[in-house]
Amino acid sequence: MEKILSPLTQQPTVVKVEDFSVAQTISQYEEIGVDVKRFFENLNTVQLYKCTKTNYRFYHPFSIIGDADFYKDLSINRKSYYSTRWEHNKILSTLNPKEKVLEIGSGFGAFLSLLKSKSIQAEGLELNPEAIKKCQLEGLQIHDMLIDEFTVNHKDSHDVVCFFQVLEHITNVHDFLQSALVALKPNGKLIIGVPNNNPYLFVNDKYHTLNLPPHHAGLWNEKSLKALEKVFSVKLETVYYEPLGRSYTAFLTAYIKNSSFIYSKMLIAVNKIAPKVLKRILCKFINGRNIVVVFRKIKNG
C-alpha cells in the first residue's frame, strides 16, 4: 500500500479529509470549455488529504495536476486569468525602489510591469513560451527556468521573492519553498499570494471549478500558511485578505447554493428585502477569496 507523505513536511503525518467525484469534476470543467478527462483515467474519485502538522490540504494522486496543454486551454477560455490582480497592487504599495525583486511564475508580466512603472528592479521566472515572448517584447527581465535552476547562480541575491496564485499549483511544495528561500537574502521578504480556503473557496464551495485538480494541487488558508514557520526559517510579519466586496456576487451565489436549506432560504429572503444590509454584514465578518502573507527570512536560516 502506498505511503502518502505530506508535500510540506515530507512526513507520513496525513489523514484523509474526503473524496471528490471525478465525474463531477470533469463536468465542472466542461462548463468552462476545458476537457480534463485525460487526467483522471481509471479514477472514480480523487482524495483530499490533510497534513496534521500544518493543516495543509492536498489532492491525491499527484498525477492529476495540470500540464502545459491544460494551461494553454485555460488561457484561451479564461482571458482574465493572467491579468493584474488585487494582490499585485496591495504588495506594490509596500515595496520601494531600493529592493531587488524576484517573481516566480510571472505569467504575461502583469506584476513585473507594475514594478517597472515604479522603477523597482525586478526579474521573473516563467515557463510559458508565449508569456515569455510577451514579457520580452515589453522589455521585462524574464528567465525561462525553474526556481531550483535559478538559485544555482543566485543564492541570497534578492530582497524580495514573491509568487501570486502559484503555490496552489505546486505538488512538491517543500522543495519549491526551500528553493525560493535560497534566492532570498537573510532578512529578506518572502511574499505569497494564494486563494483563501475557509475551508474551501467561498466558505463551503467544494466544487468550485478552478479550485479543483488539475488546476489546483493544494488548498491553503491562514492557518496552513502560518505553519510555514514550523518548517522553514521564516517569521510571519503580515497577513492581508482581499476584501469580500470584490467578489461578492460570486460569493453570495455560492454561499446560497452550498448552505443548508433553511439558511439558504433566509439568505435569499434577506437579499431580496435588504441587499445592501446583507452585503455590509457579510463583508464585515467574512474574508475575501484571496490571502497574501509576508514572511521575513530569519538570518542564517
From TrEMBL:
Naturally occurring in which organism (per UniProt): Lacinutrix iliipiscaria
GO MF annotation, one: 3-demethylubiquinol 3-O-methyltransferase activity
Protein name stated in the entry: Class I SAM-dependent methyltransferase
Record has Acyltransferase as a keyword: no
Highest taxon above the source species: Bacteria
Pfam families: Methyltransf_23
Gene Ontology biological process terms in this record: methylation
Entries under InterPro entries matching the protein: SAM-dependent_MTases_sf
Coiled-coil portions: none
Record-listed E.C. numbers: 2.1.1.222, 2.1.1.64
Keywords of the record: Methyltransferase, Transferase
Transmembrane helix listed as a keyword: no
SUPFAM superfamilies: S-adenosyl-L-methionine-dependent methyltransferases
